């Protein structure tokens, strides 16, 4: 008998059930509105909403097992796609945040290329305002003052940055 003809082992079935239960636990990350947009059975949505409201660890654990069982009966692909899109969005948000930090730190360090990068990405940027905020942020740091202008510089960069 070939390997491909054998039914899945008990261990393999358990791994698959645990993977679906983990998929179900990731559903708790979604807001109520986002959960409604996922193509899945209504009883599964209801079970996730109930799990989100539970305080008892043991009750939530049992509910997660129940959610795993409901996912086994449903098509898990729409859930996987929704989680992939959510993860991609978070990755894009993190990259955009990092780019803003790099711009801010470059301006504070006096890097001339940073201003060019900002103007290339945001031609309408008010560079005079950014220069003023940069100068104020440097002064704050020198005098050990609270980082009011430092934060204002970051907000100004965030406001002018294109999405993505």
Descriptive overview:
By secondary structure, the protein is mostly helical. It folds into two domains: 9-75, Orthogonal Bundle (Diphtheria Toxin Repressor, domain 2), CATH 1.10.60; 90-160, PSPTO4464-like domains (Diphtheria Toxin Repressor, domain 2, Orthogonal Bundle), CATH 1.10.60.30. Helices cover 76% and strands 0% of the residues. It contains eight helices and no strands. The N and C termini lie far apart (53 Å).
Précis, in short:
With 164 residues, the protein is mainly alpha-helical.
Helix/sheet category: mainly alpha
Broad shape:
elongated
Give the end-to-end Cα distance, rounded to a whole number of Å: 53 Å
Within the CATH hierarchy, at the fold level, what is the topology of the largest domain?
Diphtheria Toxin Repressor, domain 2
What is the domain tally?
A: 2
Task: Supply the key terms.
164 residues; mainly alpha; Diphtheria Toxin Repressor, domain 2; 2 domains; 8 helices; 76% helix; elongated
List the helices and strands and how they pair.
Blueprint: H1 10-26, H2 32-37, H3 42-53, H4 57-73, H5 77-109, H6 112-121, H7 127-142, H8 148-160
Helix pairs in contact: 1-4, 3-4, 5-6, 5-8, 7-8
